[in-house]
Design a protein that fits this description.
single chain; 420 residues; mainly alpha
Length: 420
């Protein structure tokens, strides 16, 4: 038996409107601490009738919508009268009026849009009505400057990127400005995502989690912060575990970046980098089990990686590294690329890795894979030096030793790939 489509739509609208009415009643009792219908006209049944009214008035005249508009204006006038009364009692919220307006729109939406749209709006209403406490906690903890930073992310991706030409206009650069900036947006997005997760979803959850999440956007910066904490002489085992875990996460991050920009290189890196990451986490776990300190006061890496100056500097370094790589590969071939990979490991390796992943150089995918592994390995030596310098030899010697071993493992695996 086939059910008439209008009948099905009407039943769905009635059911969802009734459920919204129940949710509003619960909202009044739990959040507004009142069950009085005088705060807002109508009860559970009223919402069901509002949904039915919107459906019927839209169905009667779906072209000019005069009756549908008159119905909504009538409800709005009734609310305005009640709102004026509430203002006299210092009640200013229009939230429930907005909810009523959405319920009224169910009838029009379900007849003009896909069914999932009405269902999604219902789900959003329910979730948002129940999110008052969570939103309040989030707003109280968030730094207002983060909204400015989010605006920068939108500026990077939605404003600047579409304006850039997608043709090769820069000499000696095999990429268009569009693709260069796209790489900046991707790296900035990954780094910013790790920063947000660490700062707002897992704040002050311990040194180890600081190391894991910090490795998502900068294992080097995380190593420096943790090493400075180790210099105080407290919680050394867990700080060693955190420093090693930051480098372990770096390997996973490089796999993701490689898969995004060159899937063949990404696939080639999966086995060695996953193995090195797994080994690093095993060592971290061993030190984590030795920790006897129950109370921790971790320093979160509180420097936002999405500063505009940082993004433009990254773009500049990206272009420079691409030009250098182009010159080295054309002049000195594969051996020159390997030496360059080792040298740039003592700097920020992301611009170099992106340049060889996206640039069209006279090298094979396997040579690119080897270069990335060498750069990652030498970058571990830099982090080991940072750990010893900022933490002191007695405090961070073990973590510096293990990330150096991971670096040696990276380079050794690269040489194995080269000679295979």
């Amino acid at each position: 038996m086939n059910i008439n489509i209008d009948l099905m739509h009407l039943l769905i609208v009635t059911a969802l409107s009734f459920l919204i009415g129940l949710e509003v009643k619960s909202y009044r009792i739990q959040v507004l601490k009142t069950n009085s219908i005088n705060y807002f006209f109508g009860s559970v049944r009223t919402y069901a009738f509002i949904g039915i009214l919107g459906f019927v008035l839209y169905k009667i005249e779906p072209i000019h919508l005069s009756m549908y508009i008159v119905g909504y204006l009538s409800l709005s006038v009734l609310y305005a009268l009640l709102y004026y009364k509430n203002l006299l009692e210092d009640k200013r919220s229009i939230l429930l009026f907005v909810v009523m307006s959405l319920v009224y729109s169910f009838g029009a939406i379900i007849q003009t849009q896909a069914l999932w749209m009405t269902a999604l709006i219902y789900v959003l209403i329910v979730f948002i009505l129940n999110s008052k406490k969570s939103v309040s906690r989030f707003v109280s903890s968030i730094n207002a400057k983060e909204f400015e930073t989010l605006g920068k992310m939108i500026l990077l991706s939605a404003v600047i990127l579409p304006l850039l030409p997608n043709t090769h206009i820069i000499p000696y650069i095999p990429l268009s400005p569009f693709k260069i900036w796209l790489a900046v947006v991707v790296i900035s997005g990954i780094s910013y995502g790790g920063y947000i997760v660490q700062k707002y979803f897992f704040p002050a959850k311990g040194y180890f989690l600081t190391g894991v999440l910090g490795g998502l956007y900068s294992s080097t910066a995380t190593t420096v912060v943790l090493a400075r904490k180790a210099k105080q002489g407290n919680d050394l085992n867990i700080i060693d575990a955190a420093i090693i875990s930051a480098t372990s996460v770096m390997y996973l991050r490089l796999i993701i970046i490689a898969l995004i920009f060159n899937i063949q290189v990404g696939k080639a890196l999966i086995i060695p980098f996953l193995s090195l990451s797994f080994f690093g986490f095993i060592i971290s776990y061993i030190y984590l089990q030795k920790n006897n300190t129950k109370k921790e006061h971790p320093d979160i890496v509180d420097k936002n990686p999405l500063e505009m100056g940082t993004a433009f500097l990254f773009a500049f370094l990206f272009v420079v590294m691409m030009m250098i790589t182009h010159f080295v590969t054309n002049t000195y071939g594969n051996s020159g690329l390997e030496i360059l990979s080792f040298i740039v490991g003592f700097t920020d390796i992301d611009p170099f890795i992106l340049s060889i992943l996206t640039g069209k150089f006279s090298v094979t995918d396997m040579q690119i894979t080897v270069a990335i592994m060498i750069a990652a390995g030498s970058n571990n030596f830099l982090k080991a030096l940072y750990a010893l310098w900022f933490g002191g030899r007695k405090n961070t010697f073990k973590s510096a030793l293990w990330i150096s071993i991971l670096g040696i493992g990276s380079i050794a695996w690269a040489l194995f790939y080269k000679n295979a």
